[in-house]
Request: fold
Amino acid sequence: MPAHILILDDDPDVATAARLLLRRRHGAVASLGDPSGLPALLAQGVPDVVLLDLNFTPGCIDGAEGLALLDLLRAQPKPPAVIAMTAYAGVPLAVAALQRGAVDFITKPWDNERLVATVDQALARRAAVRAPTAATELMGESNAMRELNALIASVAPTEANVMVLGENGVGKELVARAIHAQSRRAAGTLLAVDMGALPESTFESELFGHRKGAFTDARADRAGRFQAARGGSLFLDEIGNMPLAAQAKLLTALERREVTPIGADKPEAIDVRIISATNLDEARLFDPAVFRPDLLFRLNTIVLRVPPLRARRGDIALLLAHYLRVYEAQYGRPARTVAGAALDSLVRHDWPGNVRALRHACERAVILGQGAQYGLADFALGGPALPAATMTPAASNGSTNAEANASTFAPAFAPSCTDHDGTLDALERHAIASTLARFNGNISHAARTLGISRAALYRKLGKHGI
Ligand SMILES: Nc1ncnc2c1ncn2[C@@H]1O[C@H](COP(=O)(O)OP(=O)(O)OP(=O)(O)O)[C@@H](O)[C@H]1O
Reply:
């Protein structure tokens, strides 16, 4: 008979203690010390709940092995509810596990009552369907947002090209989506292109398409983004990061309202509405050394400025309530309110990473908050949330939480932890999430610290669903 509950831990003492404790309550409890036996065990039947240690190989504390096992468990046709088990210092890792589909986590050594209650809840919740993640609706009741929404409503039905300006994470892409949704082109597609991420060598082929045989790798005809978005809108994101040579090619296409695929002998008419966005401040955008004025003139028929969150503090409570509800539903946590003093501080906070950072802070609070209400510490505004007990020695010597977090992850780069499939992926996700948290969601700083371009970071955020 398949085990009802499975304990996957290489420490026999841990496995025995958990088995004895849980057997009193739930008949069928099994344990497995060597994860290589997991596929065979799953072939016999999938357990209802798995208590999963995140580190197996001695010396590996990055959790990549556990996360890969979590993926395997989650990929089962009727996946078990997985409870991640970590040492105290592994709380950020537990957060990564939750984001990847674990239903809960427990730190070792555990409190017996808490372990039993966690397993009970996991069993109860197993059948529950996860709520969809977050709204793509542009929320806000502040005057600034009302004005912005009114402008969107009046501009959307026209064919005018719109340029959306604003800091990172303010909601520029949401504005673009709202314009498209309210436009006469709403039945067509809104195709987003990260202009900063297009390598110069493939810029034309990506945007304008190519014909079979036009260059070595052109094995078939390929439509460019302009053709693919025909009848709809093209969202040119990060337009301020385009090299000048690419700007010239884009300008020609917009002026002529036609594009010529590479290798084609005739141009093709284009039928798209252009919505563009950048976080460049206007002084830079109007600097001809950075951005061609003639291209700017084509793109910014209408300019919409999305104010930073600190300039519309009236929206903060609403956004907090919204994203807390979203993540409570997603993680199956009870609905809780924010304590009054915490709310005051959150409203006064400057949110350098804007709504994106607020959203991440809400996710952390839902995952880590233990009180009856959310307190300020749950939102970890200064960096990743590490409860005092999780501090590494470096942190207790006066370094910041962020540094403590970085030191927790440092061994993750030991080669012995990175040589199997999925491991690097998990490490990458981890590094990105912690760096973003460290910089309050600021994409530019995080990208610089990670040593990659902003565009590459965006791609990776999409890939990891962060
Ligand atoms: N007004 C809003 N209401 C609800 N969610 C919002 C709002 N503004 C932004 N968000 C959320 O914040 C996150 C960032 O939004 P978005 O990607 O649109 O910002 P952006 O300005 O395009 O960012 P970047 O310049 O960094 O690309 C998204 O998850 C989005 O859903």
Residues 136, 138-140, 166, 168-174, 279, 355-356, 359, 443 surround adenosine-5'-triphosphate (CB under 6 Å). The chain has 20 helices and 14 strands. Residues 127-135, 383-422 have pLDDT under 50 and may be disordered.
